[in-house]
Amino acid sequence: xxxxxxxxxxxxxxxxxxxxxxxxxxxxxxxxxxxxxxxxxxxxxxxxxxxxxxxxxxxxxxxxxxxxxxxxxxxxxxxxxxxxxxxxxxxxxxxxxxxxxxxxxxxxxxxxxxxxxxxxxxxxxxxxxxxxxxxxxxxxxxxxxxxxxxxxxxxxxxxxxxxxxxxxxxxxxxxxxxxxxxxxxxxxxxxxxxxxxxxxxxxxxxxxxxxxxxxxxxxxxxxxxxxxxxxxxxxxxxxxxxx
Length: 243
Prior knowledge:
By secondary structure, the protein is α+β, with helices and mostly antiparallel strands. It folds into two domains: 5-116, Jelly Rolls; 150-229, Winged helix-like DNA-binding domain superfamily/Winged helix DNA-binding domain (Arc Repressor Mutant, subunit A, Orthogonal Bundle), CATH 1.10.10.10. The chain is built from eight helices and eleven strands. It has helices at 21-30, 86-91, 116-120, 122-148, 151-168, 183-190, 194-206, 222-229; strands at residues 33-37, 42-44, 54-58, 61-66, 72-78, 83-84, 97-100, 104-108, 176-178, 210-213, 216-219. Strands 1-8-3-6 form a four-stranded antiparallel beta sheet, with no helix packed on it. Strand 4 (61-66) and strand 5 (72-78) form a beta hairpin. The protein starts with 20 loop residues before the first helix and ends in a 14-residue tail after the last helix.
């Protein structure tokens, strides 16, 4: 499968910056392949040198680190349009791993050096920086969350954050959205034991706030869940860049 950049359906979504013809020509020159990766496959490995840069075209993935005691901390869930391997493209290596949560398809972006972007289009490069800053702000909120919220609050926050990210991509419908994240993956992202996670899920359901069932997240009472978890959407810095 090879999807030309000019025919990319992701680019038509309102979440993403609509590039000029010149910018699209540059992005097209970046793309060298389009590949499919099975579920539960590492796309990027910590310590890897000279890896490729990818855009996640379809499916879900997650960034993670393995701790010295063998435990895993999931840093972020990746959705269509997100970049994978940017650290390697900039620094030559990566300190985290990325694994496919579902079967995924990836645009491989090693047709030319990423630094050429700053010479080819300063505006596109600036918009990419804005996208990265927005991701950093979201990561900062997550670190704060892990340090000052209890289990059900952490879970409620992640539910609403993920729901909003999916809705921006046209992947949420009313009060529900697909949610293929497994229990252990949820626990690893929230810094909880599996038992604590299960209790947190039950508590949110008993409170009539949200449920996860059959790979579907249902937000039953968004206003109360936001108040309970302390969630508030981050102000957007502009439309996201998709390479």
